[in-house]
Design brief:
This protein has 171 residues and is mainly α. It contains eight helices and two strands, in the order H-H-H-E-H-H-H-E-H-H. Helix 7 runs antiparallel to helix 8.
């Protein structure tokens, strides 16, 4: 199955929506802890179908490098850098004017933001073994292509390329 990266515009609008929600929650004493949890974990909560409200409205989602829903740890990791003063602005500019589909937090947490399919990401059932194998081959091929691009762009060195490739190929 091929996944398409979310557009920068969709990500921007989703971020604006989520920022509005966080700001509204922050106006009340009880809302502050909820806003903090939402800020870090909004894309990793099962009851929200692993999508923040902004991403749900824009029909995009965050997945890990295996194209699975992200964990709370991955959600936290992809957003933690944004608490560094001024980093959010710097990262936004680097993402908006750069060539990468990933912001620094995505690279750090090893996640992608993709266009969401109808419903949630589902694992193929066992009776669809061939479809699962085809999907895995496509995923491996896409991952190695993306990894090669990271290496070509100088974002990872030869050892990291080799280590990640072994991890992708599970050897």
């Amino acid at each position: 199955m091929n996944y398409q990266s979310a557009s920068k515009l969709d990500r921007f609008i989703a971020n604006l929506i989520d920022g509005l929600i966080i700001n509204l929650l922050s106006f009340t004493f009880i809302g502050i802890p909820i806003a903090i949890v939402y800020y870090f974990l909004k894309d990793s909560l099962e009851f929200m179908n692993y999508q923040s409200l902004g991403k749900k409205l824009m029909k995009i989602r965050v997945v890990n490098y295996n194209y699975q829903n992200i964990s709370g740890a991955e959600g936290f990791k992809r957003n933690i850098l944004l608490v560094i003063p001024i980093w959010g602005l710097i990262e936004s500019l680097m993402y908006l004017f750069g060539n990468s589909d990933q912001r620094t937090g995505d690279k750090f947490a090893e996640t992608y933001v993709i266009k969401a399919e109808q419903g949630s990401l589902k694992q193929p059932s066992k009776d669809n073994k061939n479809r699962k194998i085809d999907s895995n081959i496509d995923n491996i091929d896409n991952e190695i292509r993306k990894l090669s691009k990271l290496k070509d762009d100088g974002l990872i060195n030869d050892k990291e390329f080799s280590d990640r490739k072994k991890k992708i190929l599970d050897i």
